[in-house]
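Subject: Protein record for review, amino acid sequence with backbone structure tokens
Category: Structural biology, sequence-to-fold work with a learned token vocabulary.
Format: Residues in single-letter code; tokens as whole numbers, each standing for a residue.
Body of memo: The sequence and its backbone structure tokens, given next.
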Amino acid sequence: MKKVLSIKEPYATLIKENQKLIETRSWKTNYRGKIYIHASFKHHSAKMDEDLRKLVANKEMNYGKIICECNLVDCVYITKDFVESLKKNNYQEYICGLYEEGRYAWILEDIKPLKIPIEVKGRLGLWNYYDEVEIMELMDSVDYGWVDKNRHRHFDFEQSFEKNYSLQAPKEVMTNKTGVCWDQVELERYYFQNWFIKTYFIAHYDDDKCPTHTFLTYEKNNKYYWFEHSWERFKGIHEYTTQKELLIDVKKKFIKYELNNQYNKNNLVIYEYSKPKYHISVLEFYKHCEQGKFMDI
């Protein structure tokens, strides 16, 4: 896990190129150590100083990407003397930040550009970034099972599951260390919250039973990945060239291993679904997923 700071362009790129070593903020941090610098999707909209415009001329911006790593070594309260000294002795640094009395100067050292930038959404504040391997390791603490409305853990799936199941919030899954795929995907969604992800619900409706599975996918460096933890047979991170190829593969595996190739194609559905409300029932979860985007593959 790495701490990340999102910064508007062109300032993030100036940091990556070691032309800006101080980031100014209205708030203080006690954190010291390695951080990633993320170039946010927004460009700094305020009028730039002429010297600053010259400094950033012809530079390639890096919107929506983590572009470098550095050390945050200090967080200094900005005084009037601090501003005057910087303006006099390091004018380039001065024009690259908002230096006003009462703000804070975050001092950066050991700036190292990433060979391959990481595409993520970004957030306000100092936020946490987990890579996919770290997320899989975190998920390994969760066992396959379910939690009822009274917060009791179960590892059998009798009729009481349909009557008493309640979808857990991510922090509840962390605490209970138990969850079916529906719960586990919500915990994965939490860890992947700054990535470009999609979540899917696959089901086969029949009169006897209704096998289902939920899973998370993400896009990275123009590749598509199926992140699977709860389905033990296929636990791992699977790479594809297109999202359609990914969905077709999951569908084939579901038909073979969950339906034993015995199915009605008209009853087999896949929906892309959004984040649901927590503590909903089995039926409510089905309805939520069915309100998502039907995938015609």
